[in-house]
Amino acid sequence: MANYKITLLKGDGIGPEIVNQAVKVLDKAAEKFDFTVEYDEALLGGCAIDATGVPLPEETVAKCKASDSVILGAVGGPKWDNQPGNNRPEAGLLGIRGALGLFANLRPSVIFGPLKSASPIKDEIIGDNMDIMIVRELTGGIYFGERGRDDDSAWDTEKYSVAEVERIARVAFDMAMKRNKKLTSVDKANVLESSRLWRQTVINVSKDYPEVELNHMYVDNCAMQLVRNPKQFDVIVTSNIFGDILSDEASMIAGSIGMLASASLSGGKLGLYEPIHGSAPDIAGKGIANPLATILSVAMMLRYSLAQPEAAEAIEAAVAKVLETDRTPDIYEEGLNKVSCEEMGDLVCAQL
Ligand code: ATP
């Protein structure tokens, strides 16, 4: 029987509440699909600053590296707002991504049927459902390029190597092969030299994936097409900065921040799985947080790191079913049952 070692980084705010529900669901899936999970916990973010003085202790990096995968809740909160920039909770997040070599960020933007009314986009544009996967390069480009400032100017540099583009392109093509075999590469090749290298490299990699239908789109057009006709997209691959912006746009189309999962992957099996939302300090400890984004992150982990696709599908189906009747306050609709964070975890387990 397969046994997986999972490190839990519960973090701050609602982090512990939502991760506890995700663990419950993972345990239930393990029982049903015949595998076992061993957990270890480590500190990241504000709780790590309180306990050790730094947002990313060495011990946390070591534990994560020694595990099959990592589940993260959320970090940050007003308590640590006065920390200097390099010692803020968010610095811990950037630090762990770097330390684990997580260069690919996967953000699905999915609308579950029962939540269609949460989308700001008209019904006839969304259709029966929407399911886009954005693959964002996470460790290169302008966020990490050379920067500087003098008396009256400042500059940042967008720089990509062929190797950096190749590895993210392969993640995206592999993803497209597992989905509808359609990939859109987004760039600004009409203006930027780095985008021209990006496009040429993606075309070169495409020769290894003859079954995938590849098209290219300028980022400004993509921003428009996402709201005009989101159904045209299956997998989108793009640079760090364009992915940052487009994935937030795509998540707004889905409507509810408490529902969206994400994964950050290195070349190997190890991944870091987390909800896209933050630590929601305004509702922390009240028991009303929506744990579904974290539960759906566990489903992604089962699919992309642990090779348990059936368990992943079962969790996603259970979530869709529970949403027909039960909702946490953030996605509540008249006539349905209003449930707590913990009750939502129990309902998904029962449906599994
Ligand atoms: P960050 O900068 O870390 O993203 P933020 O405060 O801008 O922090 P969130 O923490 O994601 O963003 O919270 C934004 C709003 O969404 C808050 O009002 C929060 O209560 C709500 N929210 C976020 N996540 C959830 C959740 N899982 N369940 C219910 N409400 C949530």
Automatic annotation (TrEMBL):
Record-linked HAMAP family: LeuB_type1
Gene designation per UniProt: leuB
Binding, NAD(+): 77-90, 278-290
Top EC class, one word: oxidoreductase
Subunit structure: Homodimer.
Homology family: Belongs to the isocitrate and isopropylmalate dehydrogenases family. LeuB type 1 subfamily.
GO biological process terms, semicolon-separated: L-leucine biosynthetic process
Cofactor(s) needed by this chain: Mn(2+); Mg(2+)
Name of the protein in its database record: 3-isopropylmalate dehydrogenase
Site (Important for catalysis): 143, 188
Record's cofactor remark: Binds 1 Mg(2+) or Mn(2+) ion per subunit.
GO CC entries: cytosol
UniProt keyword annotation of Isomerase present: no
